[in-house]
Design goal:
By secondary structure, the protein is an alpha+beta fold. It has two helices and six strands; from the N terminus they run αβββαβββ.
Length: about 120
Amino acid sequence: MAEKHTTLAQLRLNALRTKSEVLALLVDALEGVQVGMTVTLPAANWVSNTQAIQNASLLADDNYYYIVCPDAASYAAGCSAGLKADNVTTDGQITFHCDSTPTSDLTVHILRLEVEV
């Protein structure tokens, strides 16, 4: 059997090419699976205990579920206000409701998960 001569530079190039290919596959596989966003609910924007927020990552699609939770600094105020969110039924928009109007701005984290239905 013939002896193969491979330089260190050739091995490094092959390793980098493989690493790039693997990273590209991972990015493609995970794209759209989960997206996190943070929104602010200004205290002044509540109308009849309702407020709509705009964000391009919000998609009205049965393949996406949304988990909504106030930030740690807004958690107590959000809970005492009875903060809750509707399902996303319009692309780019989510509507929040509260039982009592918060007196301060609330920061809310939203996690979009892709699911099989």
